[in-house]
Structure formats: C-alpha cells, structure tokens
Amino acid sequence: MTGQSAIGTVDLDVDERRLAWVYLSRVVQGPCAPLSALIASVGVCEAARAVREHELPAALRGPTAARREMDSAARDLEAVQRIGGRVITPDDDEWPGWRMLGLDQLDTDRDREAAVPLVLWARGPLSLRTASERAVAVVGSRCSSGYGMQVASEIACDLAGRGWTIVSGAAFGIDAAAHRAALAVGGPTVAVLACGVDRPYPAQHDRLLAAIADSGLVVSEYPPGVAAQKHQFLARNRLIATLGDGVLVVEAGLRSGARNTVKWARRLGRPAMAVPGPVGSASSVGCHRMIREGEALLVTRAEDVIEEAGPLRLPVGEGAPTDPAHHLRGAEAEVYAALPAIGSRQPRDLAGQCGLDLATVRAVLPSLELADLVGCDSEGWFRTRRPG
C-alpha cells in the first residue's frame, strides 16, 4: 500500500508540473526570458502559482497580464491529444536539451526572442531529441525559381538519404521543396511552425504538413489554436536554426527572412551556408551578399554541407595529419586556436582573443569537449590533445 501511495504521489507531481508548463505556455505564447528566469529560480509549479496570483517582478507583469487568468491547460492537452499530438517539456526525455544550450547562452536583453522555449507542441512519430541529433536546416525564398527548387530538392534528397533530418518552416518555395525531397526518399523531416500545430500554415500546405506529421514531426512553441502573426515568424526562425547542425540557404532575396535564420545560426555558433545562383538572379541576391560579406559559406552539394555541419572528425590512419583539430572549421577552429598549448582560459578571455562574441564561444566549447579536444576545470578551459 505504501509503495502504491508513493507511485501515486510521483504521478501527481508529474501531472502538476506538466499542467504548469502548459498553463505558462498559454499565458505568454512564445519566448519570454523573464519567465524562463523565474522558472529556473523557483521551479515551474511555483512560477505558475506566482503568475496566477500576480506575485511577480515588474518585468513579468506586462507579458502575463492579458492571459494569466486563462487556465486552459487541461483543455489544451486534450486538444493536442485529439489530433494525435503531444506537448514536450524540459522534464521529458524527448526534450532536445543539448540543442537548447546555445539559446540558453544568448543575451535576451539584446533580443527578447532569444529565450529557450517553455515547451514544444508536436505532432508526429519521431522523437524530437533523436531527430535533431543530426540535422540541417534548409531555408530560402518563398518566391523561388525553378533553379532554386531543383537545387534545394537535390541537396535535401541527398542529405535525407544519408540519414540527416531536414528542418524547415513548411513555407512556400524552398521550404516546401526541402520537406518534399526528404519525404520522397523516406528520410526524416521536421517542420517548425509559427502557429499552433493544429493550424496548417500556409493553409495550402495542409496535405504536406499531414504527410510530415505521418512520418516526421511538426513542432511549434505556440499552443493549439494560436494563429500565425508576423513577429512569431522571427521567433520561429531561431528554433529552425537551433534544431540543426547548420543552416543552408537556397535562394534568398535582398530582404529575405532566411537571412534572419542565418543570423540566429551565427549567434548560436552553427555554420551558415548558401548556394550561389545565376549572377543576374534577383532570387539569389541575398545569398550572394551573405557569401560576399562572410555571413555564409558557399556550398553547392550535399557533401559540402556535411563537411561544414557534420560531426567533428579526427584524422586516423597512417599518414593522417598530426594536428587533432585538423578538421575544425569556423568558430570551432577559432576558439580552439585561441586556447594555449599549456594552461587554461576563461570564455571571456577566449572571446576577446579570437574576436567572437561571448555567447558563441560558450556555445562552441561544449561541442569541442564532446569531440574530446578540450576540457574544463576551476581555472577555465584547456586543450586535452596535443599535436603528435
């Protein structure tokens, strides 16, 4: 009897926490750095109580005022379950915690959309954590040309055929071409929406989104029923960049939203890549500018993308280069090079030495640690391997 009572108490605690996450997701509807900070400080259940009872710091009173009395958590869970969906919270094994580390290091005073999402709503059989372990975001122009559609389809098809997850936003043009290419070869694909997962957007892509939900994953940080609004697409772009190992742009106009996704990739320490187009093509002006100004690397095929976005590789075999960091690229190479051969450095010192912002350095160091290239102690970060 005592064992059953203990199990029942655990179940009640889990349910209470899930309802608290869902309630707060409805209240703020999108990223909210002050609320994330409150949850980190007092826990999600106490944060939900504080919001309900309006016992809040000044920074949270405005963002929570409109919907704090709207406790529809149970109904929201029922609504997403009716369409075969679920909510993924930071308490769940499916939560892509490693991916969210980069967002957690960003300066939310500089950009309020930089906060980690409270929860993610999802439809589809894939595990989000597993699907995002090896993924590339493919984005581009909604008004794409035949050239752009062909290139996006070919690269996405090759990547998906090699087991890479294609992440995109289900928009017209390049997004849709990338999703369809992945589906065509039976590869994994994730669509990130700027509205509830029960509202196909754009409406003309209801069949495409249904196909993605059948074999892949449709995700959003917005609760069921929330309609798409302009500012939500900018917040959505950070999730597209977060869930991929890199961002690939295939066609982008001068004011393309794809450049915003590239901005997020660079802030997160992810490689940004762009496909060049015909020199006179207005559809590729944005790609050409990003390449020229060093915002994105020029790529033309799946192999190029894998070389930039793939896992860190160490040389093996006779005749291989003796430098263990031979294959590092971009920010990883710069941070590693800034570390001394002997001794340690703090992230702030590394940022000053290699000219990168502190958030990028902090996001890169854990990936170098996973590759067994660096370690850390009370003195700072240090190299774990020496050239042979």
Assembly state of the chains shown: single chain
- Beta-strand fraction estimate: 5-15%
Structural class: alpha/beta
Strand order of the largest sheet: 1-2-6-5-4-3-7-8-9
Q: Helicity range of the residues?
A: 40-55%
CATH topology of the largest domain, by name, is: Rossmann fold
N-to-C span: 63 Å
Q: Report the count of strand segments.
A: 11
Mean pLDDT: 88
List low-confidence stretches.
1-10, 313-322
Strand count, sense and closure of the main sheet? 9 strands, mixed
At the first level of CATH, what is the class of the largest domain? Alpha Beta
Cα Rg: 22 Å
H and E order: HHHHHEHEHEHEHEHEHEHEHEHHHHEE
In short:
It comes from Nocardia coubleae. The protein is of the alpha/beta class. It has helices at 2-28, 33-42, 44-52, 58-65, 73-82, 97-104, 128-131, 146-161, 174-184, 206-215, 230-242, 258-268, 285-292, 302-309, 330-338, 347-354, 358-370; strands at residues 85-88, 120-123, 135-140, 165-168, 189-192, 217-220, 247-250, 272-275, 297-298, 374-377, 380-383.
Structure description:
The protein has 388 residues and is an alpha/beta fold. The protein has 3 domains: 1-68, no CATH class; 114-309, Rossmann fold; 330-383, Arc Repressor Mutant, subunit A (Orthogonal Bundle), CATH 1.10.10. The protein has 17 helices and 11 strands. The chain has helices spanning 2-28, 33-42, 44-52, 58-65, 73-82, 97-104, 128-131, 146-161, 174-184, 206-215, 230-242, 258-268, 285-292, 302-309, 330-338, 347-354, 358-370, and strands at residues 85-88, 120-123, 135-140, 165-168, 189-192, 217-220, 247-250, 272-275, 297-298, 374-377, 380-383. It has a 9-stranded mixed sheet with strand order 1-2-6-5-4-3-7-8-9, sandwiched between helices. Helix 9 links the parallel strand 4 (165-168) and strand 5. Helix 9 (174-184) packs across helix 10. The longest helix is centred in the first third of the chain and has 27 residues, at 2-28. The protein is globular, with a radius of gyration of 22 Å. The N and C termini lie far apart (63 Å). Mean pLDDT is 88; it is low at 1-10 and 313-322.
